[in-house]
Amino acid sequence: MKKTSILKSLSALFLASLLGAAPASAKIKVAASLTDLASIASYVGGDEVEVFSIAKANSNPHFVEVLPSYMIKVSRVAVYLKAGLALDQWADAIIEGSRNNKLDVVDCSVGVDVLDKPSGKVDASMGDVHPQGNPHYWLDPANGSIVAEHVRDALTKADPSHAALFDANAKKFKAESDKKIADWNARMAPLKGISIITYHSSWVYFAKAYGLRIVGMVEPFPGIPPTAKHLQELVDRIKAEKAKILIQEPYYGDDDPKFLERQTGIKVYRFTPSCVGTGPDDYFKHFDAMTDALSKAGG
Fold first, then answer.
1. DSSP label at 116?
2. What does the alpha-carbon distance between residue 111 and residue 146 come to, in Å, rounded to a whole number?
3. What is the distance between the alpha carbons of residues 9 and 7, in angstroms, rounded to a whole number?
4. Are strands 79-82 and 28-32 parallel, antiparallel or unpaired?
5. What are the structural domain ranges in the chain?
6. N- to C-terminal Cα distance for the chain?
7. What is the CATH architecture assignment of 185-295?
8. CATH topology classification for 21-180
9. Which of 9, 16, 105, 38 is nearest to 282 (CA)?
10. pLDDT tens across the length of the chain (299 residues)
11. Among 35, 106, 114, 237, which is most buried by a count of CB atoms within 10 Å?
């Protein structure tokens, strides 16, 4: 009798543990191409989501190795957030390989005022030019609220019972974003109108948001390494335009920026185009760090 009683108790405990685990398993699983999209999804979804990103902050988002492990992870999610504008074309292979027929794929670029749309024919001689326009739109913090709306709609579709929560969080995100944008604008105001150099074309939205003038890029064309002639032309341009700042992504080499620094005195700032983490505050923290560092450059 005692043995039977113990078995019944263990069975009851096992059943209780399964029932207790049910709320956690009911969370909406979300995959994102970029940490920025994942961070915004974490904010809007709150405790009702589990979020991860494929690309890391310190890696080039244009080129991500498609691994079977990514396909397996995406096979288990309900929503996939794409950057769009042909930035993360590698995501298509991951999504297809996941064989997840129920997956809701969301293009977060829809509704963004896209910059640098090329006119005329686009060919290989122009480098890695995106025919649909520059895809680094999340670096204008105003576009974060557009992404939040896409996330809200996707999560509501996946879990209508929490629609009110997702809508409230999206509105909260916009309110906090608007307040922070005002603070960042005030911090960056002394730099408005100054000339800067960038390594890649990642920073056009960021520059527009804060009134910075991009007068040259280390790459003569996107994805094309600079020649000695191009670097010398950049030296002359930096001096003529009195450019004080060069923004460089960490996944590009240091040799060329250091050469320009030696020749002109320009200060090099190494920023990742994406936020480091996928937590709900990481998207905002990224702008906090960048604007704080640049504001010390002076006008």
1. -
2. 7
3. 5
4. parallel
5. 21-180, 185-295
6. 84
7. 3-Layer(aba) Sandwich (3.40)
8. Rossmann fold (3.40.50)
9. 38
10. 443 443 343 334 333 333 443 344 589 999 999 999 999 999 999 999 999 999 999 999 999 999 999 999 999 999 999 999 999 999 999 999 999 999 999 999 999 999 998 776 655 444 456 677 999 999 999 999 999 999 999 999 999 999 999 999 999 999 999 999 999 999 999 999 999 999 999 999 999 999 999 999 999 988 889 999 999 999 999 999 999 999 999 999 999 999 999 999 999 999 999 999 999 999 999 999 999 999 988 64
11. 35
**135 token code pair:** 């895809």
Give Dmax (Cα) for the chain.
94
Residue type, 256: D
Strands laid side by side in the 28-32 sheet: 49-53, 28-32, 79-82, 104-107
If one counts every other C-beta atom within 10 angstroms of the C-beta of residue 50, the result is: 18
DSSP H helical ranges for the chain: 2-25, 35-45, 68-74, 90-98, 144-158, 163-188, 204-210, 228-241, 255-264, 282-295
The rounded distance, in Å, linking the Cα atoms of 35 and 172 is: 20
Are the C-beta atoms of residues 82 and 107 closer than 8 Å to each other? yes
